[in-house]
Amino acid sequence: MSWIIYSLLAVSTFSFVNIFDKFFIGKKLKSPYSFVLILNIFYFIFYLGYFLIFRSTFVINPLIVWSILSGLLYFFMWIFWFKALSGGEASRVTAVFFSQPIFTSILAVIFLAETVSPLKWMATVLIVIGAILSSRETGKTKSTFNMAYFYAILAALFSAVGGVVSKYATVHTPTLTVSAIGYFFTLPLYFIFLKNRSIFKEVRSFFSERKLMITMFFRSGLSYAAICFFMLALGSGKVSLVAALNGSQPLFVLILSTLTSVFFPKILKEEISRQALIYKTVSVILIVTGAIIISI
Fold it and tell me: Which residue ranges traverse the bilayer (predicted)?
């Protein structure tokens, strides 16, 4: 049952990274574009290491187009994800993002000719209801809608499409190699953000501070480790079961964000009123339940 351990390690590590990112974007960097650029610069170290060790798997074939396309889709996913995280609570944004099984199911029916049972369509409805509840903020403004959660939906959409495209690419290429190819081809796109003067100044200022660089390197390493844990889980367990357990991530993030807001409010401060926690808990239960039903 090693896949359970690997899956739990992946979910818990990703959840910790979500909390870290929310803190970093809110406290250390003003622009989510600066964050996504800096993050991908640090990812270069880990992807380069993978390339040097497994360069024999980097073979040019017609399927490389799918790897590149998946990289482009994930490029937009990262942008919308960090825009969402910069404007919304980590627990709510993560919950809305995990509505992606909805898009995956629809895409699987359209492009992969898969059939979806009535039970799974019912699970899709649960996820939709959960996402709506999760995006409902209380006591902040007169409006109950926050654009951050719309960005989270867009991130989920691009992630779902990227997953389907990656599936084509992994027919003859290892999953991590597909990810690396997509990364190397899309890395130059992130530098377009430097045309913005304020982003250029913020990025330059960041790389002049040693402590921030060390912190970001640590964060990048954690994220890459989470990816490896997830891949090890896939390699030792059933894909459906691994995906189902991975769907519990919003629950982990909710617990972490709540505990951090209570004990370390200077790091993260989210709504922890009784009404807010009820909304969050119910929404997470609906989304996690729906994701598990769809995955199995």
Answer: 6-25, 32-53, 59-81, 93-113, 119-136, 148-169, 175-193, 214-235, 241-264, 276-294
> What distance in Å separates the CA atoms of residue 34 and residue 36, rounded to the nearest whole number?
6
Q: What percent of the chain has pLDDT over 70?
A: 89
- Give the amino acid at 141: T
Question: Is pLDDT larger for residue 170 or for residue 281?
Answer: 281
197-224 tens-digit pLDDT: 999 999 999 999 999 899 999 998 898 8
pLDDT of residue 112: 61
Q: How far apart are CA 276 and CA 39, in angstroms?
A: 31
The residue type found at 131 is A
In sequence order, the 6+-apart residues with CB closer than 8 A to the CB of 37 are 190, 191, 193, 194, 199, 203
Q: Is the pLDDT of residue 145 over 70?
A: no
Nearest to 178 by CA among 76, 77, 71: 71
Count of C-beta atoms within a 10 Å radius of residue 265: 11
Task: Please give the structure tokens belonging to residue 168.
Answer: 């084509």
pTM across the whole model = 0.85
Of 129, 125, 91, which is closest to residue 105 (Cα–Cα)? 125
121: number of CA atoms within 13 Å, CB side? 7
SS3 288: helix
| Buried-state track 236-261, b at ≥16 Cβ within 10 A, e below 16 | ebeeebbbbbbbbbbbbbbebbbebb
Average per-residue pLDDT for the chain: 84
- Is the pLDDT confidence value at 192 over 90? yes
